[in-house]
Amino acid sequence: MINLYLSTETNFSTNGLVVLSDCKTAYIEEMLNDKYEVTIEYPIDTRGKWQYLVNGNIIKMDGQLFRFYNTVVSITGVAVTARHIFYDLTNNFIQTCNIVNLNANSALNAILTNTQYAHLFTATSTMINLNSYSIDKKNPIESIMGSSGLISIYGGEIIRNNFSISLPTRRGADNGVTIGYGKNIIGIE
Q1: What residue spans define the domains of the chain?
Q2: Which residue of 3, 62, 75, 156 lies most exposed, with the fewest beta carbons within 10 A?
């Protein structure tokens, strides 16, 4: 089920404004330590649900929140792209933040507490290695995932779960399964 909320919504435990039940396609793409987006194609329906597919509004899909940032309306439908709610931190700002001999958990929390505007995001990490670096005039996303950000210094693989950010050394587990062409798959696309 894909629930749609207005851009100002803070309670995501309800079904929201509408349920997008007629999607032609709805696709989530998450790249490790990179983008996390949804692409949806929705028809022009007689109930008018398509009218709520506007930039800024929020959807909940597979338990995760995404905010629309690119909407294209055509004669037959609407194509929208939405970023994970984590990317709302792009609109925040860190003037300066010096991280000196901190583990990744303390560094993440230092980034989140030194933002210009209050937010709902929390962070945890289990990595214990100590590092130092400074942040000067960046948004929190650059400070965490940028080329000289927290992940490039500490390592780890980010997990974004709505307003919760986690940075373990490695996501998932090695279960010893091998996927091989001709062994257990017949094609690659």
Answers
A1: 3-85, 92-167
A2: 75
